[in-house]
Amino acid sequence: MALRVALAPGMALYFSPTKGNGRSPRVSMASTIPSSPKVESLKKPFSPPMEAHLQVTHSMPPQKIEIFKSLEDWAQNNILVLLKPVEKSWQPQDFLPDSSSEGFYDEVKELREQSREIPDDYYVCLVGDMITEEALPTYQTMLNTLDGVRDETGASLTSWAIWTRAWTAEENRHGDLLNKYLYLTGRVDMKQIEKTIQYLIGSGMDPRTENSPYLGFIYTSFQERATFISHGNTARLAKEHGDLKLAQICGIIAADEKRHETAYTKIVEKLFEIDPDDTMLAFADMMKKKITMPAHLMYDGRDDNLFEHFSAVAQRLGVYTAKDYADILDFLVRRWNVEKITGLSGEGNQAQDFVCTLASRIRRLEERAQGRAKQAPHIPFSWIYGRVVQL
């Protein structure tokens, strides 16, 4: 794909019995009872994509769970303080027309007029970002698979469980705000978008974190910075197109993502401090498997390569690129002082060398890919009523 290294370099392939459609095989049931023409055929059940790789679970040794139990007080004093009180938090309604106001229709009209100048390819990126945010139930589920930090009861009072719920609550505003804004513009096909969200949540995600908080928090550190960059770039482009309200919306979401990035990178920093060898091995493992984007199983019922196509548009517009991927890796290496960590095992030293040189290798590969790139095709997107956009 045009973005084979961009949003998710070396993204996992998907098994399919049909040519390249990325969907899982459908299971149908045959009956030995002769069918009657009046009997309605059984409807096929929802079937998400099937990952080609073997899923590894619970790879963290049980004794490591004690490390996270011992960090409860530390998390309370260093991570929970990064959450904002609800009463001091922004809410989607702060940025949207007030439906109870007599001036509601005038405000909507102004919003729609501003949105007219924004091109379709920008809306493809904005919709893709919104759909990613709307799949929030999947991300909370993923965090609650991590051994030693999951919310065991649904209302646990451990620091880790409180963080997961409160992080989810803060993130929930992002999809709400973008969804309502896009609905009011009239520029997008909301039913197709809603179908895509339903497909995505039903399909889930597999970041290959193996129920390990070592892998999981490295993944979220990378992802929060990626979403900070993506929303920040959509804010910049909205401003360039003259939509200051949309720029404000994307900017305020980016600020949240930056704060969440701070929390997750602090956790990994602490892990490097108390368990440098296993943390280094986890960092290398996560980067060898590639950081797949949360919405990599995106599907709208029509385009079997929807995520690939959305990613290509994001790459072309500069919303999120292969360069950003490499820059994030460089940032994390610096943030955690990875090059200066000593006392590692032989395997740990090899992992250290790998992560410290990987970004430059990614950049070289991307330069070669760009040099071989052909004229990008034009693809219709159901999100914008089938209008065609260049990849």
What spatial order of strands do you see in the largest sheet? 1-2
Tell me the major beta sheet: 2 strands, antiparallel
Average per-residue pLDDT, rounded, comes to 89
Measured between the Cα atoms of the first and last residue, the distance is 9 Å
Low-confidence stretches: 1-22, 24-41
Helix proportion range: 40-55%
User: For the CA atoms, what is the radius of gyration?
Assistant: 22 Å
Work out the number of β strands.
Answer: 4
Number of helices: 13
Protein structure class: mainly alpha
Q: Tell me the overall shape.
A: globular
Could you tell me the strand content as a percent range?
under 5%
Elements, N to C (H/E): EEHHHHHHHHHHHHHEE
What can you tell me about this protein's structure?
- It is found in: Plastid, Chloroplast.
- Belongs to the fatty acid desaturase type 2 family.
- Homodimer.
- It comes from Phoenix dactylifera.
- One of its GO terms (biological process) is fatty acid biosynthetic process.
- The chain contains 13 helices and four strands.
- The chain has a two-stranded antiparallel sheet. Strands 3-4 form a two-stranded antiparallel sheet.
- It is mainly α and 391 residues long.
- The radius of gyration is 22 Å and the shape is globular.
- Strand 3 and strand 4 (387-390) form a beta hairpin.
- Helix 4 (120-134) crosses helix 7 (190-203), helix 4 (120-134) packs across helix 11 and helix 8 runs antiparallel to helix 9.
- It starts with 13 loop residues before the first strand and ends with a strand.
- 55% of the residues lie in helices and 3% in strands.
